[in-house]
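Quick start: load a record and inspect it. Here is 3'(2'),5'-bisphosphate nucleotidase:
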Amino acid sequence: MPYDQEKQTAIAAVIQAAQLCEAVRQGLVPAAIEKNDKSPVTIADYGAQALICKALAEAFPNDPVVGEEDTTDLRQPETAHVLTAVTEQVQQTIPSATDSDVLNWIDHGNGTVASRYWTLDPIDGTKGFLRGDQYAIALALVVDGDIKVGVLGCPFLSFDGAETGLLFAAVRGEGTVMMPIAGGNPQRLRVTAADDVDRLRLVESVESGHGDLSQQAQVAQAVGITAPSIRMDSQAKYAAVAAGQAALYLRLPSPKTPDYREKIWDHAAGVLVVEEAGGRVTDMHGKPLDFASAARFPNNPGVVASNGAIHNAVIQALN
Ligand SMILES: Nc1ncnc2c1ncn2[C@@H]1O[C@H](COP(=O)(O)O)[C@@H](O)[C@H]1OP(=O)(O)O
Ligand SMILES: [Mg+2]
Ligand SMILES: [Mg+2]
Ligand SMILES: [Mg+2]
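Running the structure step on this input writes:
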């Protein structure tokens, strides 16, 4: 099977990172540090990036990793205690890890977009993680601008009252599967059918500043969605569309930050998980998202992820 080694490596690394994140969360209330852009980061974000980058560096030493976090703040003398805490968490998985190993592994995630690269969000939805809500560990492999492998770990997600902690994995052309993070059989996923009125639902961010709630509501109404929206943090929203729990995920540019450009690690894994489950993902104008250029989409405003059946109607309603 194509990309089988990549898929297996990515799944194993995401599961390790998911266990670290849940260990941090089940300990004391995780402290957040504020980054330059005022967004939060925790020892779990750093620890998850360290574990996943170590695994990728060993298995695929020539592949750059474009990850969210870097070590600038961690290397400051006043945050030495934070680095110590990150290393302690990483040592639960790799007992020999030193502070210097951890810094080097995190920095392995500061690669740039190339003909073949990985992109990593060690915790997508850090605000959800801190609130005790949804978050995701998102890892994808991109080759010549095309997402080939996407793995989403959602440690706090469950559907229809089944087990909590789900992992979603997709390989281009091979479909999407869902499996419990704790272990169990993979199950093939399919987006909701066009005529499944019960599942004709919109999923959108909890953070009102990450989208345009009023335009999202108007578009949903225009395509016949009448149920109240599901509010969820992180790329777990893509998982909800892939699993048929929702028919549409809208992320339209917030009027407060109209120039915000979405980052590749906030979407790559989720996009493939939806596409391989039979859905469609584009920007708000119906154009494919550009994973070939840079860490941020240069020219893709908004994101629309759907079951495919309603996609054209959504784009029409938007334009
Ligand atoms: N103005 C914005 N518009 C859209 N997304 C944003 C904005 N500001 C931050 N984000 C990103 O939204 C993601 C969380 O999405 P959600 O709200 O769906 O859970 C985070 O990765 C965050 O990036 P960052 O980590 O750089 O702050
Ligand atoms: Mg962040
Ligand atoms: Mg993110
Ligand atoms: Mg993040």
